[in-house]
Protein backbone atom coordinates (compact mmCIF):
# COMPACT_ATOMS: atom_id res chain seq x y z
CA UNK A 1 0.00 0.00 0.00
CA UNK A 2 1.47 3.35 -0.94
CA UNK A 3 1.96 5.77 1.90
CA UNK A 4 -0.56 8.15 0.38
CA UNK A 5 -3.36 5.58 0.45
CA UNK A 6 -3.28 5.68 4.23
CA UNK A 7 -5.41 8.03 6.32
CA UNK A 8 -3.95 7.63 9.80
CA UNK A 9 -6.47 9.71 11.76
CA UNK A 10 -9.47 8.14 10.07
CA UNK A 11 -8.05 4.62 10.44
CA UNK A 12 -7.19 5.11 14.08
CA UNK A 13 -10.62 6.43 15.02
CA UNK A 14 -12.41 3.87 12.87
CA UNK A 15 -10.54 0.98 14.49
CA UNK A 16 -11.07 2.45 17.92
CA UNK A 17 -14.81 2.81 17.32
CA UNK A 18 -15.05 -0.95 16.88
CA UNK A 19 -13.69 -1.52 20.39
CA UNK A 20 -16.65 0.29 21.98
CA UNK A 21 -14.48 1.87 24.63
CA UNK A 22 -16.33 2.74 27.85
CA UNK A 23 -16.17 6.50 28.06
CA UNK A 24 -15.49 8.48 31.21
CA UNK A 25 -14.18 11.37 29.16
CA UNK A 26 -15.76 14.27 27.31
CA UNK A 27 -17.87 14.74 25.21
CA UNK A 28 -20.85 14.08 27.45
CA UNK A 29 -22.90 12.25 24.83
CA UNK A 30 -20.69 9.14 25.33
CA UNK A 31 -20.30 7.75 21.84
CA UNK A 32 -23.64 9.20 20.73
CA UNK A 33 -25.75 7.47 23.38
CA UNK A 34 -26.84 10.71 25.04
CA UNK A 35 -27.70 12.58 21.87
CA UNK A 36 -31.41 13.25 21.33
CA UNK A 37 -32.70 10.27 19.25
CA UNK A 38 -34.21 12.68 16.70
CA UNK A 39 -30.65 13.78 15.93
CA UNK A 40 -28.67 10.62 16.73
CA UNK A 41 -30.76 8.32 14.56
CA UNK A 42 -30.39 10.37 11.39
CA UNK A 43 -28.49 8.43 8.71
CA UNK A 44 -24.92 9.66 8.20
CA UNK A 45 -25.84 10.67 4.65
CA UNK A 46 -28.46 13.07 6.04
CA UNK A 47 -26.04 14.41 8.62
CA UNK A 48 -23.60 15.38 5.87
CA UNK A 49 -26.35 17.63 4.51
CA UNK A 50 -26.05 19.60 7.74
CA UNK A 51 -22.49 20.52 6.74
CA UNK A 52 -23.17 23.71 4.82
CA UNK A 53 -21.85 27.23 4.56
CA UNK A 54 -23.35 30.59 5.37
CA UNK A 55 -26.36 31.63 3.28
CA UNK A 56 -29.67 33.23 4.25
CA UNK A 57 -31.57 29.95 4.52
CA UNK A 58 -29.31 28.62 7.31
CA UNK A 59 -28.49 32.02 8.89
CA UNK A 60 -25.11 33.47 9.88
CA UNK A 61 -23.38 32.92 13.22
CA UNK A 62 -21.73 36.34 12.92
CA UNK A 63 -24.89 38.24 12.19
CA UNK A 64 -27.82 36.01 13.08
CA UNK A 65 -31.28 37.08 12.00
CA UNK A 66 -33.31 33.86 11.73
CA UNK A 67 -32.74 30.26 12.97
CA UNK A 68 -29.44 30.92 14.79
CA UNK A 69 -30.92 34.04 16.37
CA UNK A 70 -33.97 32.07 17.56
CA UNK A 71 -31.77 29.25 18.91
CA UNK A 72 -29.62 31.76 20.83
CA UNK A 73 -32.74 33.39 22.31
CA UNK A 74 -34.02 29.99 23.45
CA UNK A 75 -30.62 29.29 25.02
CA UNK A 76 -30.66 32.65 26.87
CA UNK A 77 -34.18 31.92 28.14
CA UNK A 78 -33.12 28.45 29.29
CA UNK A 79 -30.29 29.89 31.41
CA UNK A 80 -32.10 33.09 32.42
CA UNK A 81 -29.52 35.47 30.91
CA UNK A 82 -29.74 38.52 28.67
CA UNK A 83 -28.00 36.92 25.72
CA UNK A 84 -26.21 33.68 24.76
CA UNK A 85 -23.57 33.44 22.04
CA UNK A 86 -22.91 30.08 20.38
CA UNK A 87 -19.23 29.16 20.10
CA UNK A 88 -17.68 26.66 17.70
CA UNK A 89 -14.16 26.64 19.15
CA UNK A 90 -14.98 25.49 22.64
CA UNK A 91 -14.69 27.40 25.86
CA UNK A 92 -11.12 28.16 24.82
CA UNK A 93 -12.37 30.89 22.48
CA UNK A 94 -15.00 31.89 25.05
CA UNK A 95 -12.37 32.51 27.73
CA UNK A 96 -10.31 34.61 25.34
CA UNK A 97 -13.41 36.55 24.27
CA UNK A 98 -14.38 37.23 27.90
CA UNK A 99 -10.97 38.79 28.65
CA UNK A 100 -10.85 40.79 25.42
CA UNK A 101 -14.34 42.19 25.83
CA UNK A 102 -14.27 42.97 29.55
CA UNK A 103 -10.83 44.62 29.58
CA UNK A 104 -8.76 46.99 27.47
CA UNK A 105 -5.01 46.78 26.79
CA UNK A 106 -3.06 47.75 29.91
CA UNK A 107 -5.88 46.81 32.33
CA UNK A 108 -5.23 44.38 35.13
CA UNK A 109 -7.27 41.35 36.02
CA UNK A 110 -7.34 39.19 39.15
CA UNK A 111 -7.05 35.52 38.23
CA UNK A 112 -6.23 32.26 39.93
CA UNK A 113 -2.99 30.68 38.81
CA UNK A 114 -4.69 27.34 38.10
CA UNK A 115 -6.83 28.79 35.31
CA UNK A 116 -7.00 26.87 32.01
CA UNK A 117 -4.22 27.68 29.53
CA UNK A 118 -6.64 29.62 27.31
CA UNK A 119 -6.54 32.32 30.00
CA UNK A 120 -2.86 33.05 29.55
CA UNK A 121 -3.48 33.13 25.79
CA UNK A 122 -6.35 35.58 26.43
CA UNK A 123 -4.11 37.72 28.66
CA UNK A 124 -1.53 37.87 25.85
CA UNK A 125 -4.15 38.61 23.16
CA UNK A 126 -5.84 41.29 25.25
CA UNK A 127 -2.58 42.84 26.55
CA UNK A 128 -3.44 42.57 30.25
CA UNK A 129 -1.56 42.64 33.52
CA UNK A 130 -2.48 39.48 35.41
CA UNK A 131 -2.72 39.64 39.19
CA UNK A 132 -2.27 36.01 40.16
CA UNK A 133 -3.81 34.42 43.20
CA UNK A 134 -2.07 31.35 44.49
CA UNK A 135 -4.37 28.30 44.65
CA UNK A 136 -4.52 26.31 47.87
CA UNK A 137 -3.08 22.82 48.01
CA UNK A 138 -5.04 20.14 49.86
CA UNK A 139 -2.60 17.40 50.74
CA UNK A 140 -5.26 15.04 52.00
CA UNK A 141 -7.20 15.05 48.75
CA UNK A 142 -4.20 15.85 46.52
CA UNK A 143 -6.02 18.57 44.60
CA UNK A 144 -5.84 22.34 44.29
CA UNK A 145 -8.60 24.66 45.41
CA UNK A 146 -9.44 27.91 43.68
CA UNK A 147 -9.28 31.16 45.66
CA UNK A 148 -11.76 31.74 48.45
CA UNK A 149 -14.02 34.84 48.52
CA UNK A 150 -11.72 36.22 51.24
CA UNK A 151 -8.62 35.82 49.02
CA UNK A 152 -10.46 37.56 46.18
CA UNK A 153 -11.52 40.47 48.39
CA UNK A 154 -7.97 40.76 49.68
CA UNK A 155 -6.67 40.94 46.11
CA UNK A 156 -9.23 43.62 45.16
CA UNK A 157 -8.23 45.72 48.19
CA UNK A 158 -4.55 45.32 47.36
CA UNK A 159 -5.02 46.01 43.63
CA UNK A 160 -7.98 48.40 43.38
CA UNK A 161 -7.04 49.17 39.76
CA UNK A 162 -8.11 45.64 38.68
CA UNK A 163 -10.91 45.79 36.17
CA UNK A 164 -12.23 42.27 36.51
CA UNK A 165 -12.01 39.05 38.48
CA UNK A 166 -11.72 35.74 36.66
CA UNK A 167 -12.85 32.57 38.43
CA UNK A 168 -12.83 28.93 37.34
CA UNK A 169 -15.82 27.08 38.74
CA UNK A 170 -16.24 24.11 38.66
CA UNK A 171 -12.62 23.06 38.50
CA UNK A 172 -11.66 19.96 36.57
CA UNK A 173 -12.45 17.98 39.73
CA UNK A 174 -16.00 19.35 39.86
CA UNK A 175 -15.31 21.61 42.84
CA UNK A 176 -17.29 24.84 42.75
CA UNK A 177 -16.45 28.12 44.45
CA UNK A 178 -18.79 30.12 46.66
CA UNK A 179 -19.93 32.12 43.64
CA UNK A 180 -22.77 33.94 45.41
CA UNK A 181 -20.33 35.43 47.89
CA UNK A 182 -17.72 36.11 45.21
CA UNK A 183 -20.29 37.82 42.99
CA UNK A 184 -21.42 40.02 45.88
CA UNK A 185 -17.83 41.04 46.68
CA UNK A 186 -16.76 41.65 43.09
CA UNK A 187 -19.82 43.78 42.32
CA UNK A 188 -19.60 45.67 45.62
CA UNK A 189 -16.21 46.94 44.44
CA UNK A 190 -17.61 47.75 40.97
CA UNK A 191 -15.60 45.05 39.20
CA UNK A 192 -16.69 42.63 36.52
CA UNK A 193 -17.05 38.91 37.29
CA UNK A 194 -15.99 36.47 34.56
CA UNK A 195 -16.50 32.76 35.16
CA UNK A 196 -15.02 29.82 33.32
CA UNK A 197 -17.86 27.32 33.78
CA UNK A 198 -16.58 24.99 31.06
CA UNK A 199 -17.38 22.02 33.31
CA UNK A 200 -20.78 23.28 34.45
CA UNK A 201 -23.31 23.57 31.59
CA UNK A 202 -25.60 21.12 33.45
CA UNK A 203 -25.59 22.70 36.91
CA UNK A 204 -28.73 24.70 36.22
CA UNK A 205 -30.79 21.60 35.51
CA UNK A 206 -30.84 19.77 38.83
CA UNK A 207 -31.33 21.11 42.32
CA UNK A 208 -28.82 18.66 43.82
CA UNK A 209 -26.02 20.22 41.79
CA UNK A 210 -24.13 23.33 42.97
CA UNK A 211 -25.38 26.78 42.00
CA UNK A 212 -24.30 27.84 38.51
CA UNK A 213 -22.43 31.02 37.62
CA UNK A 214 -25.36 32.44 35.68
CA UNK A 215 -27.59 32.10 38.76
CA UNK A 216 -24.89 33.51 41.03
CA UNK A 217 -24.57 36.74 39.03
CA UNK A 218 -21.55 36.41 36.71
CA UNK A 219 -21.35 39.18 34.10
CA UNK A 220 -19.97 36.77 31.53
CA UNK A 221 -19.76 33.03 31.79
CA UNK A 222 -18.55 30.39 29.37
CA UNK A 223 -19.76 26.79 29.29
CA UNK A 224 -18.59 23.79 27.28
CA UNK A 225 -21.95 22.40 26.19
CA UNK A 226 -20.01 19.45 24.77
CA UNK A 227 -18.37 18.40 28.01
CA UNK A 228 -21.35 17.11 30.01
CA UNK A 229 -24.44 17.94 27.92
CA UNK A 230 -24.86 16.43 24.46
CA UNK A 231 -23.32 18.96 22.05
CA UNK A 232 -20.57 17.80 19.71
CA UNK A 233 -16.98 18.68 20.61
CA UNK A 234 -16.19 22.40 20.33
CA UNK A 235 -19.83 23.31 20.94
CA UNK A 236 -19.83 25.90 23.74
CA UNK A 237 -21.79 28.96 24.83
CA UNK A 238 -20.87 32.36 26.20
CA UNK A 239 -23.62 33.85 28.36
CA UNK A 240 -23.92 37.63 28.75
CA UNK A 241 -25.76 38.91 31.83
CA UNK A 242 -24.31 42.27 32.73
CA UNK A 243 -25.18 45.86 33.51
CA UNK A 244 -21.47 46.77 33.42
CA UNK A 245 -20.40 45.53 30.01
CA UNK A 246 -21.28 46.49 26.45
CA UNK A 247 -22.90 43.59 24.61
CA UNK A 248 -21.88 44.98 21.22
CA UNK A 249 -18.24 44.81 22.19
CA UNK A 250 -18.65 41.17 23.26
CA UNK A 251 -20.34 40.43 19.94
CA UNK A 252 -17.51 42.09 17.97
CA UNK A 253 -14.79 40.26 19.89
CA UNK A 254 -16.46 36.86 19.45
CA UNK A 255 -16.83 37.57 15.76
CA UNK A 256 -13.13 38.48 15.50
CA UNK A 257 -12.07 35.21 17.10
CA UNK A 258 -14.38 32.67 15.45
CA UNK A 259 -14.18 31.05 12.04
CA UNK A 260 -16.30 32.37 9.19
CA UNK A 261 -17.14 28.75 8.33
CA UNK A 262 -18.79 27.46 11.49
CA UNK A 263 -19.72 23.81 11.55
CA UNK A 264 -23.53 23.73 11.38
CA UNK A 265 -23.59 20.22 12.81
CA UNK A 266 -21.96 21.61 15.93
CA UNK A 267 -24.41 24.54 15.98
CA UNK A 268 -27.37 22.16 15.62
CA UNK A 269 -25.96 19.98 18.39
CA UNK A 270 -25.76 22.97 20.78
CA UNK A 271 -29.37 23.76 19.96
CA UNK A 272 -30.49 20.16 20.55
CA UNK A 273 -28.42 19.90 23.75
CA UNK A 274 -30.28 22.92 25.16
CA UNK A 275 -33.63 21.43 24.14
CA UNK A 276 -32.78 18.12 25.78
CA UNK A 277 -31.47 19.76 28.96
CA UNK A 278 -34.59 21.89 29.39
CA UNK A 279 -37.08 19.11 28.55
CA UNK A 280 -35.36 16.16 30.24
CA UNK A 281 -32.37 17.52 32.19
CA UNK A 282 -33.86 17.01 35.62
CA UNK A 283 -34.63 13.35 34.95
CA UNK A 284 -31.30 12.73 33.22
CA UNK A 285 -29.27 14.26 36.04
CA UNK A 286 -31.37 12.54 38.71
CA UNK A 287 -30.13 9.31 37.14
CA UNK A 288 -26.53 10.47 36.61
CA UNK A 289 -26.23 11.75 40.19
CA UNK A 290 -27.60 8.48 41.60
CA UNK A 291 -25.21 6.39 39.49
CA UNK A 292 -22.24 8.57 40.41
CA UNK A 293 -23.02 8.42 44.13
CA UNK A 294 -23.40 4.63 44.02
CA UNK A 295 -20.10 4.41 42.15
CA UNK A 296 -18.43 6.69 44.69
CA UNK A 297 -19.60 4.45 47.54
CA UNK A 298 -18.19 1.37 45.84
CA UNK A 299 -14.87 3.12 45.21
CA UNK A 300 -14.78 4.15 48.86
CA UNK A 301 -15.28 0.51 49.84
CA UNK A 302 -12.01 -0.50 48.18
CA UNK A 303 -8.85 -0.61 50.27
CA UNK A 304 -6.61 1.56 48.14
CA UNK A 305 -8.79 3.99 46.20
CA UNK A 306 -10.99 6.81 47.37
CA UNK A 307 -13.24 9.42 45.82
CA UNK A 308 -13.95 12.50 47.95
CA UNK A 309 -17.57 13.25 48.80
CA UNK A 310 -19.69 16.39 48.59
CA UNK A 311 -19.68 16.56 52.38
CA UNK A 312 -15.89 16.59 52.52
CA UNK A 313 -15.74 19.38 49.95
CA UNK A 314 -18.48 21.41 51.65
CA UNK A 315 -16.55 21.13 54.92
CA UNK A 316 -13.75 23.01 53.13
CA UNK A 317 -16.07 25.88 52.11
CA UNK A 318 -16.68 24.75 48.52
CA UNK A 319 -19.31 22.61 46.82
CA UNK A 320 -19.09 19.56 44.56
CA UNK A 321 -20.70 18.47 41.33
CA UNK A 322 -20.98 14.82 42.34
CA UNK A 323 -21.25 13.63 38.72
CA UNK A 324 -17.44 13.97 38.55
CA UNK A 325 -15.54 11.11 40.13
CA UNK A 326 -12.03 12.03 41.19
CA UNK A 327 -10.34 8.77 42.19
CA UNK A 328 -7.31 9.09 44.44
CA UNK A 329 -4.87 6.22 43.85
CA UNK A 330 -1.91 7.08 46.06
CA UNK A 331 -2.48 4.20 48.50
CA UNK A 332 -2.45 1.69 45.65
CA UNK A 333 1.24 2.04 44.91
CA UNK A 334 0.43 3.24 41.41
CA UNK A 335 0.32 6.69 39.93
CA UNK A 336 -2.96 7.88 38.45
CA UNK A 337 -1.35 7.61 35.01
CA UNK A 338 -0.48 3.96 35.63
CA UNK A 339 -4.03 3.10 36.72
CA UNK A 340 -5.30 5.05 33.67
CA UNK A 341 -3.13 2.84 31.42
CA UNK A 342 -4.32 -0.38 33.13
CA UNK A 343 -7.96 0.67 32.80
CA UNK A 344 -7.48 1.42 29.11
CA UNK A 345 -5.48 -1.69 28.25
CA UNK A 346 -7.12 -4.33 30.38
CA UNK A 347 -10.66 -3.06 30.95
CA UNK A 348 -11.43 -0.99 27.80
CA UNK A 349 -12.20 2.06 29.97
CA UNK A 350 -10.99 5.55 29.13
CA UNK A 351 -11.00 8.24 31.81
CA UNK A 352 -10.67 11.95 31.03
CA UNK A 353 -7.43 12.73 32.82
CA UNK A 354 -4.88 11.35 35.22
CA UNK A 355 -1.89 12.67 37.13
CA UNK A 356 0.39 11.27 39.79
CA UNK A 357 -2.35 11.26 42.43
CA UNK A 358 -5.77 11.07 40.83
CA UNK A 359 -7.89 9.92 37.93
CA UNK A 360 -10.79 12.04 36.76
CA UNK A 361 -13.82 10.16 35.47
CA UNK A 362 -16.37 12.46 33.86
CA UNK A 363 -19.99 11.43 33.50
CA UNK A 364 -22.46 13.05 31.15
CA UNK A 365 -25.94 12.79 29.69
CA UNK A 366 -24.95 9.58 27.86
CA UNK A 367 -23.54 7.75 30.91
CA UNK A 368 -25.15 4.45 31.86
CA UNK A 369 -25.12 2.35 35.03
CA UNK A 370 -23.23 -0.38 33.16
CA UNK A 371 -20.36 2.11 32.62
CA UNK A 372 -20.14 2.90 36.32
CA UNK A 373 -20.34 -0.80 37.19
CA UNK A 374 -17.51 -1.51 34.75
CA UNK A 375 -15.36 1.21 36.31
CA UNK A 376 -16.03 0.22 39.92
CA UNK A 377 -15.57 -3.50 39.15
CA UNK A 378 -12.28 -2.72 37.40
CA UNK A 379 -11.05 -0.62 40.32
CA UNK A 380 -12.09 -3.35 42.80
CA UNK A 381 -10.18 -5.86 40.69
CA UNK A 382 -7.05 -3.69 40.51
CA UNK A 383 -7.43 -3.07 44.24
CA UNK A 384 -7.21 -6.82 44.92
CA UNK A 385 -4.71 -7.86 42.28
CA UNK A 386 -2.11 -5.22 41.83
CA UNK A 387 -1.58 -3.04 44.81
CA UNK A 388 1.93 -2.36 45.99
CA UNK A 389 3.54 -0.03 48.47
CA UNK A 390 1.68 3.22 49.07
CA UNK A 391 3.59 6.09 47.54
CA UNK A 392 4.71 8.95 49.69
CA UNK A 393 4.29 11.58 47.02
CA UNK A 394 3.31 14.98 48.23
CA UNK A 395 1.44 17.50 46.12
CA UNK A 396 3.47 20.66 46.46
CA UNK A 397 3.70 23.96 44.73
CA UNK A 398 6.34 26.56 45.42
CA UNK A 399 5.24 29.95 46.53
CA UNK A 400 4.69 31.51 43.12
CA UNK A 401 6.21 34.79 42.07
CA UNK A 402 3.63 37.54 42.02
CA UNK A 403 5.92 40.28 40.73
CA UNK A 404 4.97 40.91 37.11
CA UNK A 405 7.71 43.10 35.64
CA UNK A 406 6.51 43.08 32.05
CA UNK A 407 3.16 42.30 30.46
CA UNK A 408 3.02 38.72 29.09
CA UNK A 409 2.09 40.23 25.73
CA UNK A 410 5.22 42.43 25.65
CA UNK A 411 7.41 39.40 26.34
CA UNK A 412 5.55 37.31 23.78
CA UNK A 413 6.21 39.93 21.10
CA UNK A 414 9.77 40.65 22.15
CA UNK A 415 12.65 39.07 20.25
CA UNK A 416 15.14 39.99 22.96
CA UNK A 417 15.41 36.76 24.89
CA UNK A 418 18.24 34.43 25.90
CA UNK A 419 18.70 31.17 27.77
CA UNK A 420 20.39 31.13 31.17
CA UNK A 421 21.18 28.18 33.45
CA UNK A 422 18.47 27.59 36.05
CA UNK A 423 21.14 27.94 38.71
CA UNK A 424 21.62 31.57 37.61
CA UNK A 425 18.05 32.45 36.63
CA UNK A 426 16.86 34.01 39.90
CA UNK A 427 16.23 37.74 39.45
CA UNK A 428 15.74 37.49 35.67
CA UNK A 429 12.39 38.05 33.95
CA UNK A 430 10.87 34.86 32.57
CA UNK A 431 10.23 34.67 28.83
CA UNK A 432 8.65 31.24 29.14
CA UNK A 433 5.69 29.42 30.58
CA UNK A 434 6.74 26.31 32.49
CA UNK A 435 4.04 23.99 33.78
CA UNK A 436 5.02 20.86 35.69
CA UNK A 437 2.41 18.06 35.90
CA UNK A 438 1.33 17.77 38.65
CA UNK A 439 0.26 20.27 39.82
CA UNK A 440 -0.53 21.35 36.23
CA UNK A 441 -0.29 25.03 36.94
CA UNK A 442 2.44 27.28 35.54
CA UNK A 443 5.26 27.96 37.98
CA UNK A 444 6.70 30.48 35.53
CA UNK A 445 4.79 32.96 33.39
CA UNK A 446 6.30 35.31 30.77
CA UNK A 447 6.96 38.69 32.35
CA UNK A 448 7.38 37.69 35.96
CA UNK A 449 10.47 37.83 38.11
CA UNK A 450 12.03 34.42 38.67
CA UNK A 451 12.64 33.63 42.34
CA UNK A 452 15.26 31.40 43.93
CA UNK A 453 12.50 29.15 45.29
CA UNK A 454 11.08 28.55 41.81
CA UNK A 455 14.57 27.80 40.42
CA UNK A 456 15.14 25.25 43.18
CA UNK A 457 11.75 23.67 42.56
CA UNK A 458 12.48 23.37 38.82
CA UNK A 459 16.03 22.07 39.45
CA UNK A 460 14.57 19.41 41.70
CA UNK A 461 12.16 18.35 38.94
CA UNK A 462 14.99 18.38 36.42
CA UNK A 463 17.07 16.02 38.62
CA UNK A 464 14.15 13.58 38.62
CA UNK A 465 14.01 14.00 34.84
CA UNK A 466 10.32 14.84 35.04
CA UNK A 467 9.20 16.60 31.88
CA UNK A 468 7.69 20.00 32.26
CA UNK A 469 5.26 21.35 29.70
CA UNK A 470 6.78 24.28 27.76
CA UNK A 471 10.40 23.39 28.52
CA UNK A 472 11.52 23.58 24.82
CA UNK A 473 14.77 21.66 25.47
CA UNK A 474 15.34 17.97 26.29
CA UNK A 475 16.49 18.68 29.80
CA UNK A 476 15.40 21.42 32.09
CA UNK A 477 18.83 22.90 32.78
CA UNK A 478 18.16 26.34 31.30
CA UNK A 479 15.31 28.77 31.13
CA UNK A 480 14.46 31.50 28.60
CA UNK A 481 14.59 35.01 30.02
CA UNK A 482 14.25 38.56 28.77
CA UNK A 483 17.63 40.16 27.83
C1 LIG B 1 -11.48 24.63 33.20
C2 LIG B 1 -11.45 24.60 31.70
N1 LIG B 1 -11.71 25.73 31.02
C3 LIG B 1 -11.69 25.77 29.68
C4 LIG B 1 -11.41 24.64 28.95
C5 LIG B 1 -11.41 24.72 27.46
O1 LIG B 1 -12.62 24.20 27.00
P1 LIG B 1 -12.83 23.67 25.50
O2 LIG B 1 -12.19 22.31 25.46
O3 LIG B 1 -14.32 23.62 25.37
O4 LIG B 1 -12.18 24.63 24.60
C6 LIG B 1 -11.12 23.43 29.60
C7 LIG B 1 -10.80 22.23 28.83
O5 LIG B 1 -10.62 21.15 29.31
C8 LIG B 1 -11.14 23.41 31.02
O6 LIG B 1 -10.87 22.28 31.69
CATH architecture of the domain at 44-274: 3-Layer(aba) Sandwich
Q: Given the C-alpha coordinates, what overall shape results? A: globular
The CATH fourth-level homologous superfamily of the domain at 44-274 = Type I PLP-dependent aspartate aminotransferase-like (Major domain)
Number of helices: 16
End-to-end separation in angstroms reads 52 Å
The largest beta-sheet arranges its strands as 2-11-10-9-7-3-4
| Quaternary structure state of the chains depicted | single chain
- Indicate the CATH class of the domain at 44-274: Alpha Beta
The name of the CATH topology of the domain at 44-274 is: Aspartate Aminotransferase, domain 2
Query: Helix content range of the residues, please?
Result: 25-40%
Strand percent estimate: 15-25%
Give the mean pLDDT. Answer: 94
**Largest beta sheet, briefly?**
7 strands, mixed
Walkthrough of the structure:
Helix 9 (213-216) links the parallel strand 9 (192-196) and strand 10 (220-223). This protein starts with 7 loop residues before the first helix and ends with a strand. The protein has helices spanning 8-18, 37-40, 44-48, 67-79, 90-102, 117-126, 149-158, 179-188, 213-216, 247-257, 264-300, 310-314, 336-347, 369-385, 408-413, 452-463; strands at 22-24, 83-87, 108-112, 129-133, 136-138, 143-145, 164-168, 175-176, 192-196, 220-223, 236-240, 319-320, 324-328, 349-351, 353-354, 358-362, 417-421, 435-436, 468-469, 478-482. Among the domains are: 44-274, Aspartate Aminotransferase, domain 2, CATH 3.40.640.10; 408-482, Ornithine Decarboxylase, Chain A, domain 4, CATH 3.90.100. It is 37% helix and 16% strand. The chain is an alpha/beta fold and 483 residues long. The longest helix is centred in the middle third of the chain and has 37 residues, at 264-300.
Amino acid sequence: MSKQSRAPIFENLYNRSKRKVISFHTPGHKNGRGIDPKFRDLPAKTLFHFDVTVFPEVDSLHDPVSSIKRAQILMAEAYGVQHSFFLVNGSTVGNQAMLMSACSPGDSIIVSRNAHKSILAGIILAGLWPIWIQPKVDQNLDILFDPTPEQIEQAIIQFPEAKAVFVTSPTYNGVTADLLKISEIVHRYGKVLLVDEAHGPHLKFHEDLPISAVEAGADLCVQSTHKILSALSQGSVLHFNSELLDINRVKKVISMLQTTSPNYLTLASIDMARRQAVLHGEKIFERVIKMAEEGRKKINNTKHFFSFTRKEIQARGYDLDVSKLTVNVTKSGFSGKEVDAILAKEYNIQVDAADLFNLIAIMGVGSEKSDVDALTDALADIDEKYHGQAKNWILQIPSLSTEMVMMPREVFLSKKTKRVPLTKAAGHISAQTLTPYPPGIPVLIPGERITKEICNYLLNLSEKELRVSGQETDTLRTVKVVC
